[in-house]
Amino acid sequence: MIALIAGVALHVWHPLEFWQDIWQRRVLGWSLLLMGILLALWATATFKEMDFGKPTAVITAGPYAFSRNPMYVAWTMIYLAIALLVNTWWLVILLPVLLLFVHFRHVLREERQLERKFGEAYRQYRARVRRYF
Question: What's this model's pTM, rounded to 2 decimal places?
Answer without folding.
Answer: 0.85
